[in-house]
């Protein structure tokens, strides 16, 4: 809750002492901003870089004119020297491999664009999906569908890279990479949500890479190593094997990362070489198909593809020594090896044929692979040939056919493919190791995306032009004797691609397990998600141990899913959400045109960022609307949690700038026309006072405000104070608001007296259309016994000023007895005494209070007063109808107050009131007279000394005797003073013989009678709301006005006096 300070003229005598000034200045030195606390990035909150004390000093007397400002404005030479010697080292994580030379001198970051950005992005983008799923996607979606998928995903990442380049070049990017850029651009709430989404995406990417590694191992390298083998339920057996071996692989990788990432870094070049060699083998194989296509054959029974696992020859029978013998294939479809054995109908009526798996680039197979071939799970993989059709039966599942393991459709292909284009943030994550991050990140990232996009698009076309369609739809290469489909295309041997893809997936998994814990550690050390603080700790060498354990646990969840096809859409959601926020950050900063938005990368536009954001959102729902909703729900929960816990970070983010622009626009729109009655709600100005201990005198005013507002509308808590401890008092008010859960603004006014402070607040608080319309204050208790009359005089002047400003006024009596926010009132009533109509605020306030849990169970009762000429029965019916039209649930009662004679009690109470008022006036006059006589005495003494000074040789001191006074007074003045004193004495004696004013008697009669009725009906109510009569126009009757109000609310515990602002605030219309 922000605290504002307004300074009004202060009297000269109110200056603070030197001692207090010294203490105050010392407090300022202790609270200087910009000091690094150790919890956040050094220099993050300062505009430039931290300048040491000796660099702030001025050069002799040459700059003495500026020496007093050196603390806040350092010398330009010192600043430039600091910038020149700045090295962008990794912050938050201690590097395991210290970049030190042999003599111990630390080197700066030395990585360039190619090594630091381009190659890491290439390695992360080209991976498991390319080697294990791209041929299947092309065979299922067709060349056109696959090309559309690749184009959409690559366009999404390219637009995101453009936005990221703009953000990365907008100032120095410390180590922390993409999380740092997004969080500082969008604020702690979005930063925390995006950071955790990026962390979860990276963690599930590790699961996907490990599952891919195990698939290559168990399907192609050591297929006999499977622990579970069930031909009747092969997909389930395969998933169980993935779970067991994947968990073991995860434990081994986590142990390697725990021991030290330096071993992972040493293997990075090996993994990168595997990726490059595998890509080169693919392109070499494509060129080879033009000259000499590989001799891989696929066996078809009719148009059905057969698993080439349990037979060697694609023949039903063969002739050996002029004798016909059955083959192994015959035994798979017939009851026995004999020619007269009973065989499957489809086997009997269709022939067995062999086709080339790789027809070649010039074969014309591209025309057959243009369109997609989607189908349900368990569907036979068939070639479009003429065959003898038979009905598929359950027995076919036992036959060695190739089946589709999952239901295929276009959107599923998008979700499975998208992880292959992630990894564009690998370069920005190494920002702390780059020689020039602002130059290397844009160039390296965009070049890597363009290169990989060309590779993917060319592979889609080349695969469709070289490989048979049924082979590409055979996901695991069963028809090729467990040879990966893309491996049949590789040259010189399929094992080049098998081994290369295996190590590539291993390396990608290790990189994910290395980077994900550090990302979680960076989020935890920022302190924006409190329950993650434990994961910010690390070992002595900087290894985030607790974060690694959590990462391994989440990664294990992905492995237990057991299928790469099911894990890929999950991490697609998290990465797409991260990319969406990158584009949002760039678009917001560009549209707001904030002064600090000055990227060196100029090839960006808000429309491109908006297009990238829209594309990310579309791909999320295209891939899986269910996963998209779950991912958005997770991000939303994280956002609201950070907002609820109150993120104390201020990073100058774009969302704050967006809020400022939105607020400015809304204020201008509100100013165009006054609010309609239907939109009226109390915008509160709460007048607080603090005691000498800097504590709020009536904290329940804040509780009542929060109960009345329920977090809606405007609340301004104001405290007029002297200038001695204005800052401390503002902090106390803010803390009290937080303690009472009051949402609003705190405004401290520095003034010479409370009257001026209240006047300034009522007139000037608020801005534009967001000005207060209701003032809440406490009733001045014990005003009768107070020696100082300023309390009740200030109160009455406040009533007059709110009336003149057409603002409503709420005065709470016994505010300290009001319930706090933790109490729950049960079985009680809120009584409204509607004496006069001043806009309907009396009816609206109980409705608003009952929205809060403190007053929720209280019933509302409306009382009104009927006079002698009124029809009370008809009034009650009309009031019932009025409450019904106002949609208010309230009991209605009409109280009859007939004209009666003024009682002796009323007469006596009025007489006592006027006698007290007159006596106080006489006492005030006597006090004034004494002050005047002292003043006259001093004037006479000064006049006498001035007249006698020329006749004396030296100055004498005179004692204050009456002689000096008589010497300066004239005879006429003495006679007039004596007569005035004689006339004053009878006036004091006449106080006890005076008769009360009839107007005051009538007012007192009304107060007494109304108080009797209210106490009789509402003494047990939890709260009584009562019309507050206005102050007298003649200020001479102010004290009598206070007496009337005191009598009116006497005998009641919780009372809220309500005075309307002169306009309707409630309506019966919709």
TrEMBL record:
GO terms for molecular function: potassium:chloride symporter activity. Keywords: Cell membrane, Chloride, Glycoprotein, Ion transport, Membrane, Phosphoprotein, Potassium, Potassium transport, Symport, Transmembrane, Transmembrane helix, Transport. It catalyses: K(+)(in) + chloride(in) = K(+)(out) + chloride(out). InterPro entries: AA-permease/SLC12A_dom (IPR004841), KCL_cotranspt (IPR000076), SLC12_C (IPR018491), SLC12A_fam (IPR004842). GO terms for cellular component: plasma membrane; synapse. Gene3D superfamilies: Amino acid/polyamine transporter I. This is Solute carrier family 12 member 7a. It comes from Pygocentrus nattereri (Red-bellied piranha).
